[in-house]
Each structure stands twice: as C-alpha cells, then as structure tokens.
Amino acid sequence: MSRIGYARVSTIDQDLDTQIAKLKAEGCGIIRSEKVSGASRDGRAELETILDFLRPGDELVVTRLDRLGRDTRDVLNLIYECEQKGAFVTVLDPHVSTRGEMGHIVLTVLGMVAQMERRFIKERQRDGIEQAKREGVYKGGKSRFDRDRILQLHRNGEGPTSISKAVGCSRMQVYRILRDA
C-alpha cells in the first residue's frame, strides 16, 4: 500500500513547493507534479501515470480537491477510477477520504464547489477584460513565448520541431508565429 501524492498548479509561473511539502509531511512516498490547467484531464500526463499504476490499497493524496480538477464530472470520474482499482482518494484540506461513505458525499459537494468557483473566475476575468477594453487599457493576454527568439532561431536555420523544444511550446504554435511574422 502506497500513499501517492499529486500536486498541480495551472501555470508555469506558479509554485508547487507548498503542495509538495504538505504531501511529504503526510507521508507520501511518491509525489508526481505538473503545471497544467485543471479545467479538463487533457494533457495531465502525471495524473494519468498515477492512475495507470494505482494498486489495491493505494491512496491518492491531494492537498485540495481542486488540484484533481475543476469539473465535477472529471473529479467524480477520477475517484471512480481509483475505486475500481481498489484505491482510495484523500484530500488534505479539508481532510476527507473515500474510505467512508460520508467522504463520497463531501467530495461530491466539494467537486461542485470547485466547478462553480472556476465559472466565477472566468466570469470575473471576462468582466475585467471588458472593463479594460472600455477604458482603452486592454493589451491582450500575456505572451507565453518569446516570439523574437522563435524568429531568431528560424533565421538561424532551426526547424519548427527543434524550435518548439527549445522554447517549450507546440510545433503548431511555432508555425503560427512564423506565419504571422
């Protein structure tokens, strides 16, 4: 029986250290982490790795339920998959586990709250962007890639595949930047 920790933040500039420290303090022998959105399960390779290797009696531990996901259906499906393998899910804040029936009810409610919170965040973001546009101060989202570096690498003879690896983006993103330049 292993306690396997899972830590997740949504963006590259966010820090995983606090979550990892809490998971270590809880006795997690294995901790997998990633920096990817929790809006869906797409692209969450570390979480998939954990699910693939769960054995009966193992315990998946997260610091908060929204680290598993922000969509109620996704969270409930993850919990169901763990249970099908004979494993448990434990959330540290608030401390809830699927080892008991009451834990299932609480996790379902918390999953719904996480989804509602995501909707509120998106709504506030949309309102803020509209306000900034009305005031003429909206400059668009923060650029995630150094476009000048991509163009320079291309001028130096690098291909899209090697550029995408060097910059940390998809090849399609490189093609779009080159097309727009």
UniProtKB/TrEMBL annotation:
Keywords: DNA integration, DNA recombination, DNA-binding
PROSITE patterns, per database record: RECOMBINASES_1, RECOMBINASES_2, RECOMBINASES_3
Keyword DNA-binding: yes
Similarity comment text for this entry: Belongs to the site-specific recombinase resolvase family.
Cited InterPro entries: Homeodomain-like_sf (IPR009057), Recombinase_CS (IPR006118), Resolv_N (IPR006119), Resolvase-like_N_sf (IPR036162), Resolvase_HTH_dom (IPR006120), SSR_resolvase (IPR050639)
Pfam families xrefs: HTH_7 (PF02796), Resolvase (PF00239)
Protein name according to UniProt: Recombinase family protein
Superkingdom in the source lineage: Bacteria
UniProt-annotated catalytic positions: S10
Domain Resolvase/invertase-type recombinase catalytic: 2-136
PANTHER family in UniProt: DNA-INVERTASE FROM LAMBDOID PROPHAGE, RESOLVASE HOMOLOG YNEB
